[in-house]
UniProtKB/TrEMBL annotation:
Organism, scientific name: candidate division KD3-62 bacterium DG_56
Biological process terms in GO annotation: carbohydrate metabolic process
Protein name as it appears in the record: Glycosyl transferase family 36
GO molecular function: carbohydrate binding; glycosyltransferase activity
Keyword Transferase attributed: yes
Domain Glycoside hydrolase family 65 C-terminal: 585-625
UniProt keyword annotations, A-Z: Glycosyltransferase, Transferase
Pfam name, any one: GH94_b-supersand
Length: 662
């Protein structure tokens, strides 16, 4: 729970230097959203002071209401701190005293005059500033260590500062961090003809997926994502680390299931410090339990997880298998009279938050997702010797697929949803939002759309939604607010979910293209949307090494600009789209599938991938420049039939050579 800064200043000039160094943090104590929204009021509870060269930052009030209590009435139970390995020449804990009246962060008054005021922040805006004065002779250097963190008490904070005041300890910890990342990044590696693809899959996309798996939406720099663990978000985020860290994912699954109700519903999000959250009624929430569990079981083959007991959030406990089936049974009980899922509060697209408030609006995307998860769970049931339930789920999936195809097909694509009044969203007759991306991609992912219909709906995506950054979420953007549709229409055109390139959805479209066997199109879509490609565009204006939540759409005055980086489910999904679907190394219950879907111009590629305790070093050759298909596989110098690599279970590394073609 601490962050260590190592600062080294060298004097390469021709004269001795006398320098002053000022550390700086702006404290946010207790509750992120409360501190930002009610900042002037929240500052009144701050208690920040410096003792023995360490700044301790505490709050007399924590804006959370524990279960069974009528209102917040507790102090924050943590102490933030800052200390260093140097003699402190001064400090400041009050932001106003450090910055100065009518000043800005660009020119703090204390830095200008060269001496801290030794201010405390009792009921004031809180900062952490420690001053060090030092001399550096010509040719020499001076190092400093600063420790910033969070502890349960002042005593524990002081112990952490004392521990890391020793340079040797700090260097050893830094080496441990380096070793961790070297090991993690080496677990799965790829080598393809595309240097951008390799850099993304091997380093930056992989790293972002790790960050989102741990931080969920708390890595946000905008308030809507702060201080919470999202249910649907976390089930998806963990997919990005499942290949490299199956044991961590197993623990995460149990943690997430503890936030499910006994009727199958779930919290939508919660504060991990208090475990308090909200049950919103989003129609897609229960489905992500099935999605995450089926992915875990295919990767690990660990069916013993299904028999473990996990408590429900409200009352009682059940086996993981019970959690799974209750989630699906709840979803099956929420169908409209004509057999499509009710959207309720909203579905994956939170912006469609008014179309189902009266209990009649429908969601085609949830219908496609539910159909997919029914088939996935039926397979799990069959393997658990529960054939009656498996048959029931397969029958429900077939009926749902038929309903979606008969009701929601609009001629060239699927419409997206209906409102409580029966108005169609995402149909060809709509002036705005006439085609939605997710209704097409999920039709293919789920198997609802097959054959010519699958090709037609994805062709419509290219024809109607293609932009310089990949397919838009829908187009045209809504121009005027519409209270019967929801907040999606209130976002400015081309921003947030209103007609943007919503990168999460682009990943699903990439996978859909690989299912159709169109490797060139899948890679083109990935390339246009990649943060590396976008970072070369002056319009992007966001970090060029991580995915943003969205990119401004064609109807925005800032078309092409990235917004809300880091916090997006794009990271996990796009990484899996590249590994599982473009490179085609996909886990199944019975082995590792090789089914590439690549640009025809690629001569081949290599992948190193762990699977169930073994390591597979795979070389794929493409002498005929095919987009998909494998005609020959050799494992450890022995040809095998089919395209499924066997499970060895010997903990060894196995050499695989696959030749593409039909």
């Amino acid at each position: 729970n601490c962050e260590i800064w190592m600062i080294n200043v060298a004097n390469r000039s021709d004269r001795p230097r006398h320098l002053r160094m000022f550390t700086f943090v702006q404290w946010c104590l207790g509750n992120y959203a409360f501190q930002l929204v009610e900042s002037a009021f929240a500052h009144l509870f701050n208690e920040v002071m410096c003792e023995d060269g360490i700044i301790f930052a505490e709050s007399r009030f924590w804006n959370v209401t524990p279960p069974g209590e009528p209102m917040p009435n507790h102090a924050w139970d943590k102490c933030a701190f800052m200390g260093g390995d140097f003699e402190v020449a001064g400090f400041d804990c009050s932001g106003e005293d450090f910055i100065g009246m009518y000043r800005s962060w660009n020119c703090p008054e204390v830095v200008e005059i060269g001496q801290c005021r030794n201010s405390i922040a009792r009921g004031r805006e809180a900062v952490g500033v420690l001053q060090r004065n030092f001399d550096i002779p010509v040719g020499l250097h001076r190092s400093s260590v600063v420790v910033v963190g969070l502890a349960p008490s002042r005593r524990a904070a002081a112990e952490l500062v004392a521990k890391y005041q020793q340079e040797g300890v700090v260097l050893r910890e830094f080496e441990r961090v380096r070793e961790y990342w070297d090991d993690y990044l080496r677990r799965v590696t790829v080598s393809t003809p595309s240097s951008d693809f390799d850099l993304s899959v091997n380093v930056w996309n992989k790293y972002q997926a790790w960050v989102t798996s741990r931080w969920s939406r708390m890595d946000s720099y905008y308030i809507g994502g702060g201080s919470i663990i999202g249910h649907r978000d976390s089930w998806q985020d963990m997919l990005g680390v499942l290949v490299a860290e199956p044991d961590w994912v197993r623990e995460r699954i149990s943690y997430l299931l503890r936030h499910q109700y006994s009727d199958g519903g779930t919290l939508h999000n919660w504060d991990p410090r208090t475990d308090l959250g909200v049950r919103t009624g989003h129609s897609d929430d229960p489905l992500w339990i099935a999605h995450g569990l089926s992915e875990y079981l295919r990767e690990t083959g660990d069916f013993s997880l299904l028999d473990e007991s996990v408590p429900f959030y409200d009352q009682g406990e059940g086996r993981v298998y019970d959690h799974l089936t209750r989630a699906l049974d709840l979803a099956l009980g929420r169908l409209s009279p004509r057999g499509l899922p009710l959207i309720m509060v909203a579905d994956w697209n939170d912006g469609l938050d008014q179309i189902g408030r009266e209990g009649r609006g429908e969601s085609v995307m949830v219908g496609e997702h539910l159909c997919w998860m029914l088939k996935e769970t039926a397979e799990i049931c069959q393997r658990r010797n529960d054939p009656a339930r498996a048959a029931r789920y397969r029958k429900a999936a077939a009926e749902l697929a038929r309903n979606v195809n008969e009701i929601a097909w609009d001629g060239d694509w699927y419409w997206r949803a209906t409102t409580d009044d029966g108005e169609v969203l995402g149909g060809a007759g709509c002036a705005f939002g006439s085609i939605y991306l997710n209704a097409q991609s999920w039709a293919v992912l789920s198997g609802v759309a097959t054959g010519e219909r699958a090709i037609r709906c994805m062709d419509a995506v290219w024809r109607e939604l293609d932009t310089k950054a990949g397919p838009a979420l829908f187009l045209p953007a809504y121009r005027d607010p519409n209270g019967r549709i929801g907040i999606i229409t209130r976002f400015a055109p081309g921003t947030k979910e209103n007609g943007t390139i919503f990168n999460h959805s682009v990943a699903w479209a990439v996978i859909a293209e690989t299912i159709l066997g169109r490797g060139g199109r899948a890679h083109e879509m990935w390339h246009k949307n990649s943060f590396l490609t976008r970072g070369r565009d002056a319009d992007y204006r966001a970090e060029p090494y991580v995915y943003a939540e969205y990119i401004h759409g064609p109807d925005s005055t800032r078309y092409g600009q990235g917004e809300f980086t880091w916090l997006t489910g794009t990271a996990a999904w796009m990484w899996r789209a590249c590994l599982d679907h473009i490179l085609g190394l996909r886990p199944t219950y019975d082995g590792l599938l090789i089914n590439p879907c690549i640009p025809a111009e690629w001569d081949g590629y290599r992948v190193r991938r762990p699977f169930r305790g073994d390591v597979y070093e795979v070389e794929v050759q493409n002498p005929g420049h095919a987009e998909t298909g494998v005609r020959e596989i050799v494992v450890d110098d022995k040809p095998i039939e089919g395209d499924l690599l066997p499970i060895f279970g010997d903990g060894e590394t196995h050499a695989v050579r696959a030749v593409m073609g039909r």
